Amino acid sequence: MLDDFLIRAALAGIGLTLATGPLGSFVVWRRMAYFGDATSHAAILGVALAFGAGLPLYAGTLVVALAMALTVASLAGRGHAMDTVLGVLAHSALAFGLVAASFIPALRVDLTAFLFGDILAVSRSDLAVIWGGAALVAGLLAWRWQGLLTATVNEELAQASGQSPRHARLVLTVALALTVAVAIKIVGALLIAALLIVPAATARQLARGPETMALAATGIGAAAVLGGLQASLHFDTPAGPSIVAVAAVMFVLSLIIRRRG
Q: In degrees to the nearest 10, what's the CA dihedral of 184, 51, 34, 141?
């Protein structure tokens, strides 16, 4: 069964939604969209460094994504004007990544795949990394769920109950870096944030509680993956952008449903 590239692509996308569903919910709740952009853009620099140093792709991407996420989280804790700082970091990381990639001939050929994803090229070993990484993120969020939720709703309440908002930010930072490293080959650096945000934003229109929203975001993400792959096959369009496009259509439909409801 795993010899069929479409089956592998579907399994990879569904596995990724195990992480993007609940994590994307926190990204929406905490208004961390630009945070996700900065981390995902840094992934291109990680790809270039991995190729240049002969490291595994996922390892290089994870190291740079984690470094960027920790930098952003540190600056957020010090009260810097985050919209400007995140804009500078996101675009600078992407620019340095593209410049570094220009010095690596083998990477220049495959750069579009890392920018926009190449889910149809996912291998069996990629599947293992994707499902393992997504399960790790989902498990981390489930383990710290109540503390993360309390810190998201009210940081002062979290401190009063003995929980550290800074620790909650660190957990989300690590989870985001892991998700970016896992997702880079599926939807690419430029579309990772969209896959995090759009299904969660859609679920927010329909769900009543936080747990329901996280589960709904996972299901909506999986439906977008399957619908995007079907659209890509039917219309001969790029798979990664097609997945995000289907997710965007589902978001518009959710707005219509909510207004009529």
A: 50
Domain count, the chain: 1
Residue 247 has which token pair? 């997710």
- Name the residue range of residue 52's domain: 5-188
Query: Can you give the pTM of this predicted structure?
Result: 0.90
Contacts of 130 by beta carbon, 8 Å cutoff, 6+ apart: 12, 15, 16, 122, 182, 186
Show the beta-strand stretches assigned E in 29-188. Answer: none
Listed in sequence order, the residues at least 6 apart from 72 whose beta carbon sits closer than 8 Å to its beta carbon are: 35, 38, 39, 82, 85, 86, 89, 173
pLDDT tens track for 176-217: 999 999 998 888 888 898 999 999 999 999 998 999 999 999
Query: pLDDT of 86-112, one tens digit each?
Result: 778 888 888 998 888 888 876 665 678
